[in-house]
What we know:
The structure holds 2 protein chains of 2 kinds.
Chain A: H1 2-15, E1 23-32, E2 35-45, E3 50-54, H2 61-68, E4 76-81, E5 84-85, E6 93-96, H3 108-112, H4 120-133, H5 149-161, E7 167-171, H6 179-196, E8 199-203, H7 207-213, E9 216-221, E10 224-230, H8 242-260, E11 266-275, E12 282-287, E13 290-295, H9 298-303, E14 311-315
Chain B: H1 3-33, H2 45-58, H3 60-92, H4 94-108, H5 116-123, H6 127-151, H7 155-163, H8 168-205, H9 211-220, H10 224-252
Helix pairs in contact in B: 2-10, 3-4, 3-6, 3-8, 3-9, 5-6, 6-8, 7-8, 8-9, 8-10, 9-10
Family (chain A): Belongs to the ABC transporter superfamily.
Domain Mop (chain A): 260-325
Organism (chain A): Candidatus Accumulibacter affinis
Amino acid sequence: MQIDNLELAQVEAVRCGNGGLEVEVSGLVKHFGERQVLHGLDLSIPAGEFVAIVGRSGCGKSTLLRQLAGLDSLSGGSIGLDGKARDALGDQVRIMYQEARLLPWRTVIQNVALGLPGSRAQVRARAEEALAQVGLADRADEWPSRLSGGQRQRVALARALIHRPRLLLLDEPLGALDALTRIEMQRLIEQIWRQHAFTALLVTHDVAEAVALADRILLIEEGRITFDEPVDLPRPREHGEARFAALEGGVLKRLMTVQALNPRNQLRGQVAEIVTDKVLPEVRVLTPAGLVSAALPTSTLSEFPLELGTEVLAVCKSNEVVLAATD
Amino acid sequence: MTSPVKALSSGAKGLLPWVVPIAILVVWELSALFGWLSTRILPAPLAVLKAGWTLALSGELWTHIRVSAGRALAGFAIGGGLGLVLGLLTGSFRRVEIALDTTLQMIRNIPPLALIPLVILWFGIDEVAKLFLISFGVFFAVYINTFHGIRSVDPALIEMGRSYGLSGWPLYREVILPGALASILVGVRYALGFMWVILIVAETISAQAGIGYMTMNAREFLQTDIVLLGILLYALLGKLADVAARLLERRWLRWNGAYSAA
């Protein structure tokens, strides 16, 4: 019954032209000085989809979000929203940050109504409505400093919703909250997303959060999308469920592998020689920097059989690199 | 049960800071009464009060206070206003900062009182000279704190404001000015304190009216009670200005827990 209502609301929202924006990112490049953060990133999100992006810190996921929000200029590539240039529909995009970023000198309701045009009474009524949606109608006239972290994020959510965004960008908005408040907020965000049917893009480092909320999970490594996994679990999703846990485990495993493969200490090359007559088998890899040899446990070698000429990555941990002077 | 005890102890706490000053006044009055202190050096507190009462009745006191306060506030309005405007400009626009800030920082190092000889040469010894000195003195306190206030507004909030469609004056009104206000008010409070210092010196240059004139005049006639009255008036006016500034802070910064009324 409740789900029917939600679906009705979605249909209604789409009919009013209030549904999600379709996002089309192609060849996105971003430099900060010498450092290149995004290396020609392509991404397309159909209208109304909830996408979560995970990745190690510094992989470029927040940079992508800031580009979509129009906060930083592009170094190359393009962003299209509903087939138009980003700036044409910029006012239909809203972002929620990791910190609530409420103005401490404005009351809760003034914060929610920030930048909203219209007569005073109209604005107040809409702000009250938005506050009621996040369950904070009774705190309207308090200072933000009186609220808890979770409540502040709910105010920030109301402030974003009041503009009826068609694309909501969430930059780790729940990162600073305790576990219980976080799950509460996830439910609230999911419920509001289903009501308003906007497109949502969530950056998070919490894989469980990504699995709980998203239709699709993306992994960004080195400024590119390297993993794109649909999540077709029925909503609302329960954290303890077997399929939930399996999916979470899969994504985590993938993330851990990436974590080990620090892009700054890797050499691409071909297997040149496999020596098996030593205590530990040795694999010699021919790289542009020369011959690199790695000792591997026999079990690893039998689990991942290598042949001569196979393309491999030779990786070492940065804290195991020793620089010696040549004399 | 505990409330009367509590009230008593809080009442005692309220009185405690006044015990020492009252004791000093009593000793002072007694030593004047018994002739241990010459009235030439220090008149008795009651004599000062009496002198104040007589001058108040004749209306002379009010004229002097009005003239002094008028001078101080006019100087404060000119210097503080200029400081505020220039601070807002250099704080908000990089180009104005590059053009003006170095110059202003150089002038800032001149102690205003060192300018007295030059000011007398430029403006003579009448009102303009006094206004100039006071304005010059309060300008920098307001200027520097406004500049730093604007510069230290949280960039995360400015970014948020922009991404919510604010720009130009609305962004200034909603985010930048309120963010700088605490710092600006520190400048105002500091300037108000400094304003009285400069006023006292300026009024001793030469004046036809004002508290400084009153005390200098009294000195000629060895009226130590009136000299003392003048000093007390300066202290009172200074305190009054400080209280006013603090009230402004309480009103404008009430969102900030550190400033809300206890």
